[in-house]
Every structure is written in C-alpha cells, then in structure tokens.
C-alpha cells in the first residue's frame, strides 16, 4: 500500500461552468485509524450533479470534498464493526483514503455475481432515485406513457429500464447527442428519443408523443418542464428530480408554462430528495438484484479509470460526456 494519500479540494467558487482551476489535489501521509475507527482505501467514487450545487456555497474551500464512495477496510481499530477486508459504502469521497467510524459506513450486502460498481449506480443513490421517482412519486400504473429528460444519464437510464420492467407504456427520452439518442432506443428500451438541441423541446416532444404523456420524469427543468406540462394528459404527473439544466447557467430565463393546464388537467407536480427515502433501499435490492443476475436489467455506466482523473470525470459529466452513471475507479482495481 502507498504511504501517500490524495484529497481533492475546491479552491474557489465558480460562476457558470467550473474548470480544473477550481480544484487542487493535496498530498498527505495516509492517515492512521484511531481506536474505534478504520482506514478505508477507496475503490470507486461517484461524481454527481449535486456536487456542482455544493460548489456554490456548501463545500468548504481548501478542505477535502465529500461524495459517495466504495472502499475496502485495510486497517481497523474496531474489528467487530469494521472488519478488515470488508467493502463499505461511505461519504468521504474525493480522496484515496478515509478514516471512518462504524456509524459512517454501510456494509454492502453480498450478492454473488453483482459487480461492485452497481452499488454506486443502479443499486445506489442513482437507482434509488429512479425507483422512488417511479414507484412513490409518479405512482406508475401499467401502461402509463412516460417522458424522461436527461434520459441517457444515470437516473435517466435507470428510470427507463425500471419503467419498462414495471409495465410502463411508451417511453420517450431526450438527451444531448445523436449517439445518446441511439443508445436510448437501441440499448435501454426507449421507444422514441430526441436530441433536445435539434429544435424547441415542445415541438420535438409533440412529434415523439403526438397523443401526449401520463408522466414526466424531470432531471433538467427549464424548457423541458414547460414542454412536458403542455403534453401531459389529464391526471398527469411531473416527478421533479433535478434541475441540471440550470446548475451552470444561473442567469437562465425562468420556466414558462401554462399555469391553467395544471388546474384544467388536474396535474400533480411533486419533487423529492432521495435522502428522505432510504427506507426503500431493501425493496430496490429485491426488485433489481434478481433482474441484474438474470440479465433482465443491464448496467449503464461510464467508468473513468484513475483517481487522478476524478475532476476531469466530474467536469465531463456536467457537459454531458457520460452515458449512464459516471463513476471513477481506482487504477489498480480490476474491473468488477
Ligand atoms: N432528487 C434527488 O434526490 C436526486 C438524486 C440524484 C440525482 N438527482 C438529479 O437528477 C439529475 C440527473 O442526475 P444524474 O446523477 O443521473 O446525472 P447524469 O444525468 O448522469 O449527468 C448529468 C447529465 O445532464 C445532462 N445535462 C447537462 N446540462 C444539461 C442541460 N443544460 N440541459 C439538458 N441536459 C443537460 C447531460 O446529458 P445530455 O448530454 O443529455 O445533455 C449530463 O450527462 C440531476 O438533475 C441531479 O441533480 C436528484
């Protein structure tokens, strides 16, 4: 094991898109675990749109950043709660090593045949967001026609695959490139998809869903939200998951939609935070693990190799360079 640890720190607050200059890698000796703690060597890191929101005020400058991570316990001062060799989920990400207390980690269930990365993608917060959005917020009914924005991202691909397995009707997705549009229809199971750069979203949606939609799963906000309110049928539902279209463009114009539509079509617009739905995690495992093992559910992941590329991976994701959930894998970790 190396004796040098690396952490990523934010050095300045960005306006608009962040750049590599807003971060620095800091070296320090690998920390020693104190009694009641353990040292974790991190293996997989999640970089997420919410990190961009945190950069505006919540991340402390010149201090190690946090994020969802999987790592292996390599030294322990609490062998019962934190046994050496165990793989754990924790939130001290953006660093190669972390010292954790038992209450700060979740031990992963042992599902033979499930790749480790899945616990940060379709079985992790990303998959849980998609699953809660469909089952608790949309309260999806068999045959419901769905439109999903940022459909080729982590939450968007999981939403499409889960919706198909849950008996949805037509699935329509929007994404940022023609390659992603093809990926959605050829690989993920979407019936129709469009590149939102190729015209007004309302027109593209009307073409893709000429008879309307029942549910809109919204990862983007803005123009997508306005278009979807217009396309929703009576008793339609909008699941507000995120607003990634606005995190780097704070000056973006406000969303315009016909407010009377919400009344006249009896629409429901509801947002949620996945952190308030952790109780659904076991149900997600029960739903997704057997389907992953049988091949009915596949992983959509972009894996960037090497901790030193974590900032690059984060910035790539903000500009749409990922398909499926973006993860960073330690360079010396074999795939799986
Ligand atoms: N509510 C919750 O608890 C919760 C939990 C997790 C995630 N989220 C939210 O869910 C959304 C998706 O998160 P994720 O982790 O799955 O990320 P992701 O979709 O894998 O990655 C972000 C994607 O956003 C798209 N994007 C970027 N700028 C855009 C713009 N101006 N207009 C339209 N699309 C744009 C890009 O794809 P294109 O190439 O298609 O543009 C990019 O790939 C985010 O809004 C995130 O904040 C919410």
UniProtKB/TrEMBL annotation:
SMART domains xref list: PKS_ER
Keywords noted in UniProt: Oxidoreductase
Superkingdom of this protein's organism: Bacteria
Location of the Enoyl reductase (ER) domain: 18-328
Any one Gene Ontology molecular-function term assigned to this protein's record: oxidoreductase activity, acting on the CH-CH group of donors, NAD or NADP as acceptor
This protein's record includes keyword Protein transport: no
Cross-referenced SUPFAM superfamilies: GroES-like, NAD(P)-binding Rossmann-fold domains
Protein's name according to its UniProt entry: NADP-dependent oxidoreductase
Provenance organism: Streptomyces aurantiogriseus
């Amino acid at each position: 094991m190396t004796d040098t640890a690396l952490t990523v720190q934010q050095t300045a607050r960005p306006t608009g898109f962040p750049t590599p200059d807003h971060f620095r890698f800091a070296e320090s000796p690998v920390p020693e675990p104190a009694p009641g703690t353990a040292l974790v060597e991190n293996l997989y890191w999640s970089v997420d749109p919410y990190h961009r929101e945190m950069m505006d005020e919540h991340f402390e400058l010149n201090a190690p950043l946090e994020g969802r991570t999987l790592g292996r316990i390599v030294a322990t001062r609490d062998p019962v709660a934190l046994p050496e060799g165990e793989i754990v989920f924790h939130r001290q990400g953006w660093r190669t090593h972390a010292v954790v207390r038992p209450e700060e980690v979740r031990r992963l269930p042992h599902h033979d045949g499930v790749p480790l990365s899945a616990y940060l993608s379709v079985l992790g917060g990303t998959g849980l967001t998609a699953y809660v959005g469909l089952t608790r917020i949309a309260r999806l009914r068999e045959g419901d026609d769905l439109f999903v924005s940022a459909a080729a991202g982590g939450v968007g691909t999981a939403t499409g695959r889960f919706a198909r397995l849950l008996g949805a009707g037509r699935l329509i997705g929007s994404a940022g490139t023609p390659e992603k549009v093809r990926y959605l229809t050829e690989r993920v199971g979407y019936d129709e998809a469009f590149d939102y750069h190729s015209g007004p979203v309302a027109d593209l949606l009307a073409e893709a869903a000429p008879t309307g939609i029942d549910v809109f799963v919204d990862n983007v906000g803005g123009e997508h939200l306005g278009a979807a309110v217009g396309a929703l049928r009576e008793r339609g539902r909008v699941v507000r998951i995120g607003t990634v279209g606005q995190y780097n463009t704070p000056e973006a114009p406000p969303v315009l939609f016909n407010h009377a539509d919400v009344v006249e079509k009896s629409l429901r617009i509801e947002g949620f935070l996945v952190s308030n739905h952790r109780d659904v995690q076991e149900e997600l495992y029960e739903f997704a693990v057997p389907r992953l093992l049988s091949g009915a559910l596949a992983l959509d992941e972009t894996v960037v190799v090497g901790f030193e590329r974590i900032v690059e991976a984060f910035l790539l994701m903000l500009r749409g360079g990922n398909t499926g959930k973006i993860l960073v894998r330690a360079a010396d970790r074999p795939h799986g």
